[in-house]
Design goal:
The chain is an all-alpha fold. It has one domain (5-175). The chain has helices spanning 5-56, 61-121, 128-175. The longest helix has 61 residues, at 61-121.
């Protein structure tokens, strides 16, 4: 089996379609982040107006410190919720891009192996050493890719677990902060 110009064109066309598909996924993720940030900005502006009104209504320092303390916990929880939502968008987009990339790499590996097998079948006599070297290089490249992909996936899982733990700790710390006392 030999590859024709039409097969190479089809292969390149598929790669371009994959590239544009990945670009669209990335832009969808950016759109979600922009929408999240706009919503946070809109909500923050409304809350700032409410806080300003409440601050103007304060009559003594004790009431001011009570107001300040009452705003601390919701702020920490909102920041944690924002971080979680942001992370979910990024992780979801990353996962989709990873799935497409894995499928594309697997397809490319199959095509390269088919090309190598075809070259082996049509190799001239006496080129066994060169053929073995090419096969070994392709196998080493596939193994290296699989090792890197596994390590990246494990690193992502560890980062996600650390992020979840850090967020939970921050929310708990805000919930247990002393009420009505001035922060140092």
């Amino acid at each position: 089996m030999t590859y024709t110009a039409d097969q190479f064109v089809a292969f390149q066309k598929a790669n371009v379609e994959t590239l544009f598909g990945l670009s669209n996924k990335a832009f969808e993720g950016v759109e979600k982040i922009v929408a999240l940030n706009l919503q946070v900005a809109k909500t923050s502006l409304a809350e700032a107006a409410e806080t300003a009104q409440a601050t103007l209504a304060v009559k003594d320092p004790q009431e001011f410190f009570a107001l300040q303390a009452s705003l601390l916990q919701p702020s920490a929880e909102k920041a944690a919720a924002y971080s979680r939502h942001f992370y979910e968008i990024v992780a979801g987009t990353n996962a989709e891009v990873g799935r497409v990339a894995e499928a594309t790499v697997a397809d490319s590996q199959k095509k390269v192996l088919a090309l190598v097998d075809n070259a082996v079948k049509n190799a001239p006599a006496g080129s066994e050493n060169a053929v073995a070297l090419v096969k070994s290089a392709v196998a080493a490249a596939n193994n290296a890719y699989e090792s890197v992909a596994k390590a990246a996936k494990q690193a992502g899982e560890v980062a996600e677990a650390n992020f979840q733990a850090m967020t939970a700790t921050a929310v708990r710390a805000a919930q247990t902060a002393p009420k009505g006392k001035r922060a140092a």
